[in-house]
Amino acid sequence: MDSWRTLRSSLALDHPVLRVEQVTRQRADGLNHDFVILRASDWVNVLPVTPQGQVVLIRQWRQGSQAPSLEIPGGIVDPGESPQEAGARELLEETGYVAGELVHLGQVNPNPALFDNACHTFLALEAQPLASQRLDDGERIEVLTRSLADLPGLVADGSINHSLVLSALCFFWLRGGWPPPVARFGAAPT
User: Fold this and answer.
1) Cβ contact 54:36 at 8 Å
2) Which of 55, 69, 105, 130 fits as disulfide partner to 171, beta carbons 3.0 to 4.6 Å?
3) pLDDT tens for residues 71-107?
4) What's 50's DSSP letter?
5) Domain membership flag for residue 190
6) 27 Cβ partners below 8 Å, 6+ apart?
7) In whole angstroms, how large is the CA radius of gyration of the chain?
8) Is residue 35 domain-shared with residue 70, that is, in the same domain?
9) Where is average pLDDT lowest: 109-118, 152-161, 174-183?
10) pTM of the model
């Protein structure tokens, strides 16, 4: 499939979380069309599993949906930070847990129609609580643990409905995680 050529581009909004860009692009056949592109830093999600086979979940109020959301820890990859470093940082900040090992499970494009970023998913093996939460001013996060066996039910009944968390669970289950023997999870694909 042919790519589109950018004719014009202007910044409509420059916010710390994302930039909104208006672009006019041209198809190979000459048709011009206006688009909105949301430019954002990459994101990271972490699925923490304790030595006892419990998964560490978080519950927080989400301003967009105006509802509490049951999720796994995650957030923005800061400039100069690798996705793995961001995963370790977000896990510690949001839960106070530290992982014995972080294993890259995959990445997705959250919404390729609008966003230009990726969301990376990591499995945090041997996750243990070692510190207090270090939350941002706008965060209030409840930390809870559930059995890995509870996850399908939490998805099926809609308790977990965050699309990027569902994507992370899909990566986990596709890699054979039930519960995860460490030997099954290798290095990130090259």
Assistant:
1) no
2) 105
3) 999 999 999 999 999 999 999 999 999 999 999 999 9
4) -
5) no
6) 2, 4, 33
7) 19
8) no
9) 174-183
10) 0.89
Going by the DSSP 8-state scheme, the letter that residue 174 receives in this structure is: H
Same domain, 66 and 116: yes
Coil, helix or strand at residue 110: coil
Tokens describing residue 17: 């979380």
Placement of tokens 């510690």 in the chain: 92
pLDDT at residue 142, rounded to an integer = 98
Q: In whole angstroms, what is the distance from residue 20 CA to residue 105 CA?
A: 29
Q: In the beta sheet, which residues pair with residue 106?
A: 121
- Name the token pair of 1: 């499939």
What residue has token string 């994507």?
167
Long-range contacts of 22-29 (CB under 8 A, 24+ apart): 27/2, 28/2, 28/4
The domain that holds 123 is classified in CATH as: 3.90.79.10
| Domain boundaries, position 27 | 5-39
Establish if 187 belongs to a structural domain: no
Specify the number of domains making up the chain: 2
* Tens-digit pLDDT profile for residues 108-154: 999 999 999 999 999 999 999 999 999 989 999 999 999 998 998 99
Cα angle: 183, vertex 185, 157; to 5 degrees:
120
